[in-house]
Amino acid sequence: MDAFKKLLPKIDICLLVPNFNTPLGYCMPDAHKKEVVSILAQHNIPLIEDDTYGDLHFGAERPKCCKSFDKEGNVLWCGAVSKTLAPGYRVGWVAPGKYKDQILRMKFIQSLSATTIIHEAVGNFLLTGRYDNHLRQLRKTLQENCNRYAQVIANHFPQGTRISQPQGGLSLWVEFPKHIDTAELYNDALKKRISIAPGRIFTLQDQFQNCIRLCIGLPWTDSLGSKLQQLGKLACNL
Q1: C-alpha dihedral, 103 to 15 to 211 to 207, nearest 10°
Q2: Pairwise CA distance, residues 111 & 114, whole Å
Q3: What is the model's pTM?
Q4: C-alpha dihedral over 108, 85, 131, 66, to 10 degrees?
Q5: What are the structural domains of the chain?
Q6: 153 has a pLDDT exceeding 80
């Protein structure tokens, strides 16, 4: 929060992914969300809240969004089914608060029409209540996947490797010992038809060279487990 406050004189708009962001899978504490919303409102700085991962919580309760603390209409809360139902549908929504007129104008300028049939199909699916059942099963699967990844990493990755402990989302952040260059690991893994995301692609600074992000969203199979073991072996050989 201290670092955030120092930025206030330099920014005109703020974009946050407060719940289970990628690549770290971090979830902002409610107290921080409330404070951020209050501070931005005082400075009349709009907050665009990307909450596309919020429904993928492992715990019993969904984490609150920043919008729930918005009293001034200063938060533009964005959601979608792209991370929960079907990425290819590209169906999302926004609760724009006091910026509704501007958002409608931008929508009209940038995309005069939308994929009505897909929107209607998603809307009807939401109305049936089956989406909630789908989310419950998906959250269970993702948590099981996360545990499986963690077990394989503990058994087959280099000693000293550390991993995040996300409470939701699709990302697992892996930190190798300092001597391992994950750009080199990426190239070695690609030759084995294994795709990873090196940590350096998530920053504009010179950092995270020994880190990777793994996606836990794929269905767990013996083949996936084997490839994860292969990745650990490649890392051990660096």
Answers
A1: 120
A2: 7
A3: 0.88
A4: -60
A5: 2-128 (3.40.640.10), 138-236 (3.90.1150.10)
A6: yes
